[in-house]
Design brief:
With about 160 residues, the protein is α+β, with helices and mostly antiparallel strands. It has one domain: Immunoglobulin-like, CATH 2.60.40.550. It is about 15% helix and about 40% strand. The strands form three sheets. It has a four-stranded mixed β-sheet, with no helix packed on it. Strands 2, 7, 8 and 10 form a four-stranded antiparallel β-sheet that branches. It is flat. The protein starts with a helix and ends in an 11-residue tail after the last strand.
Length: about 160
């Protein structure tokens, strides 16, 4: 009897976070034609204020080794009406641009992940809600977790 009760309680506790995540996804509409909806679920952290997430949007293409490249476009933040949740959109992606250094025309091309140009796009860490990004088909989203160090320093009077 106790074993059955403990099993029921454990199953309920495991199902609650899953059902809550599914409920949160109701706020995010399906991707429009030509777009893809990508979802990132962040693990819970003890002090989430000490973490940030960098979203890196790009595409793997064949390029020469000697030049630096980037894609035009930007990540736009949008609040979903009625829910207050944030989604991130990349509606325009491209064209690709880069430096014009001369390279050997016979040099082989290499596969390289080319990202959006500009400053890194860093968002607040929140494990309670998914990070949802809408991008054009064929575009990839990668991420990096940034962590604040434990040491806090004092600014000296100048």
């Amino acid at each position: 009897m106790i074993k059955a009760w403990v099993t029921t309680v454990l199953l309920f506790l495991l199902a609650v976070p899953t059902s809550q995540a599914v409920d949160n996804m109701k706020a995010f509409p399906p991707a429009e034609e030509g777009m893809v909806r990508l979802v990132l679920h962040l693990p819970k952290q003890a002090d989430e204020a000490a973490f940030k997430v960098e979203l890196i949007v790009g595409k793997t293409v064949q390029v020469d080794e000697g030049n630096r490249y980037f894609f035009g476009g930007k990540i736009e933040k949008e609040t979903i009406k009625g829910w207050g949740f944030t989604r991130y959109m990349v509606s325009k992606f491209g064209p690709m641009a880069g430096t014009l250094m001369a390279v050997d025309p016979n040099a082989p091309k290499v596969d390289r992940f080319i990202t959006l140009g500009g400053e890194p796009y860093i968002i607040r860490y929140n494990s309670r809600l998914p990070v949802v990004v809408y991008v054009p088909e064929g575009v990839e989203v990668r991420y990096r977790i940034w962590t604040a160090g434990a040491e806090v320093k004092v600014v000296e009077k100048g």
